[in-house]
Amino acid sequence: MATPDTVTVVEEVTRMVLTRLQDMELQIVVGVSNRHAHLSKADLATLFGLDAMTVYRRVRQPSDFAAEQTVSISGPRGTFPKLRLMGPCRAKTQVELSLTDCVTLGIKAPITQSGYLDEAGPIDIEGPAGKIHVEHGVMVAARHIHMGPSHARAWGVKDQDLVKVAFGGERGGVMDNFIVRIKDDWIPEIHLDTDEANALGLHDGDVGKLIKE
Question: How many angstroms separate the CA atoms of 88 and 85, rounded?
Answer without folding.
Answer: 9
